[in-house]
Amino acid sequence: MTKSVRVHLSEHISERLATATKSSGATRSALVEAALDQFLGEGGKIQEPSVESRLNAISAQLELLGHDLRVVSEVVALQARFHLATTPVLSSSAQRAACRLGSARFDEFAAQVEARVQAGRSLIGETIERARAQALQTGSSEDNLVNDATVVDIESSPAIGLDEQPDRLAAAADRDGPHGSESIATATNPAEHLRLPRHHLRRQPAERALPHWLLILRVFLPFVAAYFLSFLFRTVNGTIAEQLLSEFHLGADDLGLLTSIYFLVFAAAQIPIGILLDRYGPRPVQGLVLLAAAAGAGLFAVSESFWLLLAGRALIGLGVAAALTAGLQAVILWFASERVPLLNGVMIMLAGLGAAAATVPAEYVLVAIGWRGLFKLLAIASAVCAVAILLVVPSRSLAPARGGRSLGLKTVYADPRFWRLAPLSASCIGTAWALQGLWAARWFADVERIGRPELLWNLLIMALASSLSALILGIMVQKLRKLDISPRALLGFVALIFFLAQLAVILRIPLPSCLPWGLVAAVSTATVLSYAVLAELFPKELAGRANAALNVFHIGCAFVVQAATGLVVQHWNLDQGHYPEAAYQTAFAINLAVQVAAWLWFLLPMPRKRATCAAS
What we know:
Elements: H1 11-24, H2 28-40, H3 51-86, H4 92-119, H5 123-138, H6 145-149, E1 159-161, H7 166-175, H8 177-186, E2 195-197, H9 212-248, H10 252-280, H11 282-302, H12 306-319, H13 323-334, H14 340-357, H15 360-392, H16 409-413, H17 416-446, H18 452-482, H19 487-506, H20 514-522, H21 527-537, H22 543-569, H23 581-603
Helix pairs in contact: 7-8, 9-10, 9-13, 9-14, 9-15, 9-17, 10-11, 10-12, 10-22, 11-12, 11-13, 11-15, 13-14, 13-22, 14-18, 17-18, 17-19, 17-20, 17-21, 17-22, 17-23, 18-20, 18-21, 19-20, 19-21, 19-23, 21-22, 22-23
């Protein structure tokens, strides 16, 4: 007994059914009935695929996987053969440096793999999407995507000797973008006898095509000018202190608070500014924030009361709060990695001339137009510098955090290695800033009883020593790394020299006063060492926030030392308008004891977050 059922088949299935009918001689109804009977099985339930069919599917997948593994093996073998054929044998003296470089590269590689696995992002998918977006922007057809987005044939690529053409490697790193530049720039140490193939991952963006001299003019010098103003504002109160004391009838505690409020606001602004720098980049942040310094200098120039002076000084501290971290980030973003330590040293050296400008040159301006006229000029200079940064510095897009991870201050402050560095760096550098900015001048006037011309020349020598030490320390970091001496070890040694210089001042050892005070000022630029240590601890994505996190401690310590010294000195009575020697010796000795404790903490073995290469 049969029952008629009307069904609709696709054209493709209908054609296959007709073909099967002709070949088997059976009717369409018979074939459909047999197929449904086999598919539905007993009870009208759809039968699951048989074990045989599943095994066949698994077998097919394994064949595809085996094919993929063979491709990967051949690629790895080809890459290994290429490097074995083109890389010269390392000398025994270079083996240790090569192992250290390999450990650093492996750590970076492992971190990127971990980030991508956690984020679930495919590198090949990213590459294809980036190449497609680039093709759309440049008008290229999708047929040319492979040519634009893939590496050139490895066998036909001439190798570049790192010791022969570092500039070409730096240019290649620039073309490879933020992530590619890390891997290539890491290897561009001229001391290493390694060779790399040239890559062409994507077309060079227009802003990175700027020649090196134009980058110096349009990027480096504008940020140096902003940091120059920061140094000048930081130390100029030591030069105009006599005028402020007489005009506003200030005591030592008032003068200490007025000068140190700069550091307090500076420190409070570091974390927000670090976040803004990592999000928007140094150009807009530095350009806009520096306008606050112009407003603060203008307010300071027209102030008629202590509280208006305090408000103006606070605005100045806010306005220059981004000067250092923005400059450091600009160097990291725009220049090759191997040039960063030296450029940081040059930047701090040139900016240190601002402290020199706050001494004898500022005195000439004071004689001509007074301290109010001086601050009006500084207000105009700050406004001009801010506009120049906004208009002259090219825009530069920032690379997102690797793997989409949330990299923030928690990453910095949760790292035990940061807390091993911060106390020593803050206590030494903050003290140097506080002494150079105010209390060195008061020591010369109250303890050594020298005249104003000689006092200003001593301050000028200190400023020049500070500026020169920045360049020397930047060069030493670069040279000593080749001798396997880390910036951390150099920082510990510089701190020891700093202690001896302060001890010579406190004990009044018979030396020319400019010698120990010059060493004190030289330590004010030891930020070159501290930030070099940070660069080894944290990735580039955290450069702004890591530097700002440490700078909070630098500036905060400078505020505490500058204000606390005034409070201690104020406990002694004036003697013919001067505070006694014992007042300063007591204040300086208390501070030195804190620094020595931080140094002992710093000397403990640095904790490690992950294992490193055993051979390193």
